[in-house]
Write a structure and sequence with these properties.
This protein has 6 helices and 4 strands, in the order ααββααααββ. The chain is mainly α. α1 runs antiparallel to α2 and α4 crosses α6.
């Protein structure tokens, strides 16, 4: 008789725990729909697994097996660097166009023009920078840009507006770091 009572209580307890968990996760996911960071945190906690950023034990490149972590990272880095320059060469060389048919005709639309940026918009964007992000090719951490927002908003606004009026973006603004590990390579 005790065994039957125990099983009933155990089953009731298990049911109540599952129900409470379900209500908790439904409540948290629906209340965080507008905040993706919190939403995915709840989802990750649901499955109880963290994504691991582990390197493979070895990779094969040019018929050579690499097992050293630095060599593997450098191989990945070289791959990403060469991929970026490959895409750049494909898009910059009009002779690469395989299709010889004339481009499709599009309806004539009014030309697109950027509107000039206001200093208040630049200031607001600087204030909204995440100070925990890493620095870009200019080596300026977002923390310092955020601190200096009052002083650099107007000069940056001028630079942005000159760029828009000349219809040309400086090449240095098109650069980014590719960071497979803590060190990175500059790609332009």
């Amino acid at each position: 008789m005790d065994w039957i009572v125990f099983r009933q209580l155990r089953n009731r307890f298990t049911f109540l725990v599952k129900k409470a968990k379900s209500e908790y996760y439904i409540s948290n996911t629906t209340s965080n729909l507008n905040d993706p960071k919190k939403f995915w945190k709840v989802i990750k906690n649901t499955f109880g697994t963290e994504t691991k950023n582990e390197l493979p034990a070895c990779i094969v490149t040019d018929s050579q097996t690499l097992t050293d972590k630095s060599a593997i990272l450098n191989c990945f880095n070289e791959h990403f660097i060469s991929s970026g320059s490959l895409f750049e060469s494909l898009h910059s060389d009009p002779g690469q166009n395989v299709d010889s048919s004339p481009p499709p005709s599009h309806p004539v639309a009014q030309p697109f023009n950027f509107t000039f940026i206001e200093a208040i918009e630049v200031h607001k964007a600087l204030q909204n920078l995440d100070p925990h992000k890493s620095a870009g090719p200019d080596k300026l951490p977002p923390h310092f840009l955020k601190l200096a927002a009052d002083f650099i908003a107007e000069p940056l606004t001028y630079l942005f507006n000159v760029t828009l009026s000349n219809n040309e973006i400086p090449n240095i603004w098109k650069c980014a770091y590719v960071l497979p590990e803590r060190r990175g390579s500059l790609i332009c």
